[in-house]
Specification:
Distance between the termini: 56 Å
Largest sheet: 7 strands, antiparallel
Strand content: 25-35%
Order of helices and strands: EEHEEEEHEHH
Helix content: 10-25%
Number of helices: 4
Structural class: alpha+beta
Length: 170
């Protein structure tokens, strides 16, 4: 149902450039909503939580994941969130779904697509963020002024930089 009858709405959909969220208002299952979105134009992946696992889905491929022993327990199609194409996807997907303000379903946009916000604004053509794809998730890092080259993980995250800078600047 549309905005003409907000009280009768079944879901709320929010969009923010390269990602979007769906909030169920009438008790629909996250899986049901995700399956309705999966395969839609502009949708690369849908993410939702089910029985204590995060689930990433695209078509018939599905990966279930949860933290385990300092890493990730993954069931299903591990190729779905391949590291090079989706850097640190398990951590990022898990944290996004665990955010108290997150929707019941998170949508990661396909390459070349943007989801307009309520003001019909977007960053089509560049300067955007939000999907799990590497192009939206990685940035160059130039370091200068360190006496020794800092040691960083193979796939550093923004969270790896704070301790580095705090140690450097005392």
């Amino acid at each position: 149902r549309r905005a003409e009858d907000p009280g009768g709405a079944d879901v709320v959909v929010t969009a923010s450039n390269r990602s979007g969220m769906v909030y169920a208002l009438r008790g629909q299952s996250s899986r049901e909503l995700a399956e309705r979105l999966d395969g839609s134009p502009g949708v690369d992946l849908v993410l939702f939580e089910e029985y204590g696992h995060a689930i990433a889905k695209r078509g018939d491929a599905e990966a279930r994941f949860a933290p385990a022993n300092g890493g990730w327990r993954v069931e299903g199609d591990e190729r779905l969130l391949a590291g090079g194409e989706y850097p640190n996807a398990y951590q990022r997907g898990w944290c996004a779904l665990a955010c108290p303000n997150a929707g019941d379903v998170i949508v990661s946009a396909a390459a070349g697509w943007e989801f307009e916000d309520l003001g019909r604004r977007h960053h089509g053509g560049g300067g955007s963020h939000g999907s799990l794809l590497a192009g939206d998730s990685t940035i160059p890092l130039l370091l200068a002024g360190f006496e020794e080259a800092p040691v960083l993980p193979a796939e550093p995250s923004v969270t790896d930089l704070a301790p580095l800078f705090l140690a450097h600047f005392g």
